[in-house]
Amino acid sequence: MPSMLDAVVVGAGPNGLTAAVELARRGFSVAVFEAKDTIGGGARTQELTLPGFRHDPCSAVHPLGIGSPAFRAMPLDRYGLEWLHAPLPMAHPFDDGTAAVLSRSVAETAASFGPRDAGAYRRLVAPFAGRWDTLARDFMSLPLTALPRDPVTLARFGLAGLPPSTWLMRRFRDDRARALFAGLVAHVIAPLDGLATGAIGLVFALAAHANGWPLPRGGSQAVSDALAGLLRDHGGAIHTEYEVKRLDDLPPARAYVFDTSPTALARIAGLGGYYDGYRYGASVFKIDYALDGPVPWTAEEPRRAGTVQIGPGSRDIATALRGVSRGTAPEAPFLITAQPSVADPGRAPAGKHVFWAYGHVPNGWQGDLTDAIERQIERFAPGFRDLVLARATAGPPQLAAHNANYIGGDIACGAATGLQLLLRPRLTPFPYSTPHPAVFLCSSATPPGPGVHGMSGHNAAKAVWRHLRRTAR
Ligand SMILES: Cc1cc2nc3c(=O)[nH]c(=O)nc-3n(C[C@H](O)[C@H](O)[C@H](O)COP(=O)(O)OP(=O)(O)OC[C@H]3O[C@@H](n4cnc5c(N)ncnc54)[C@H](O)[C@@H]3O)c2cc1C
């Protein structure tokens, strides 16, 4: 290691690793320090239940990963990353035994909403057809990290997405489309009537039509391992089991880049109350299952889907989300479930399956949601419980222990509500900079927010290399 590094990155999550790669491939010397004994943060894979069952404790499905401008500019396939697609990206079953779907095909998706809403859906997504690459690059680079390449499409996206999702859902006459769309918004645990929540639903829908909602072969760890392989080939080093508590714990460097919560960064770098206004949000109660067979969904479509949303109506989803934001765990939780072995049978022994489900719970909640979650699954897949070989549960305390960024179990590293959905971690056009000129933040507490896409790391790296070039002169 040189006596003075160009950059030190704290945290080997997808954003920390992306920032490190972006700097290393531009010739800067970089070292990453990770608290845990494995890299990946929210993108890891572990045998949590039984031998041979490869679970993703956090992220599993990657609509924003395959569509990430940062990842697309890196040769991650050469480092083992292969995206696998289930026949359907997502399905949303109803009590009558039918399901709406989010398909790669706009026509199939629209048809699943029924004749009264098919046209409204086609009209909603038509202006963005074939424009994912520029649109994603433009909205994921806000604020101010790059000039928009297609300002007209970005403006149309803003007009449709900036109002609350409840406005956007008024385009639909039936609850099939509304429920599916409400479920999409709930992926970032945002209340449906919040500012810009329409954009969340729209992004997930457009991502499905552009690139699908794939899973990495072998699990999410493959994303982290590919980034790490690329980093090492550019001369970067990674140190695990190295929890950083003070800046003095780190070797001398010209820049320090934190893939941590703003709270931890303020504590470590001595920034006082700079991030005191930053709010953490709701958490989840998650169950990883080893199953003796595929989930016995009543409807046919969920059997072919990588992701299945469970929350029959838009009102049920809104009620569950509202309750959670007010501190009450839901009796009938809205669930996001993922069935990786539908796309990747190698994740479990022959004929067996891995499956995960989570429901939202208040920040710091200490109860057990297992029964409520399984009642919801049984409603749409009777006989599910009989297939369970083993389960691993994690509520807010376990999630926070797994990753210091999940404060109170907040898996988004900061509430996705109000202005903080768009402008995080503070109201500033320079979210990656801090009052310390050599200290930067790159975690999902910065735009564009949660998800395995590396774009917070990519945007932060731009601020870092400007600093490095300026201070080299
Ligand atoms: C249950 C769950 C399900 C999810 N599902 C999906 C999904 O399907 N698709 C998707 O795209 N996203 C999903 N996410 C979100 C996604 O995992 C995160 O948004 C993403 O991992 C954030 O990346 P990051 O690099 O900002 O932070 P993280 O991935 O949280 O990584 C931060 C890293 O920093 C380390 N660290 C923190 N403090 C220190 C310190 N002081 N010293 C050293 N190291 C430190 C941590 O150990 C960790 O490794 C899910 C998350 C959870 C928890």
TrEMBL record:
Pfam families named among the record's database cross-references: NAD_binding_8 (PF13450)
Domain of life per record: Bacteria
InterPro entries found in the cross-reference section: FAD/NAD-bd_sf (IPR036188)
Identification of the protein by name: Dehydrogenase
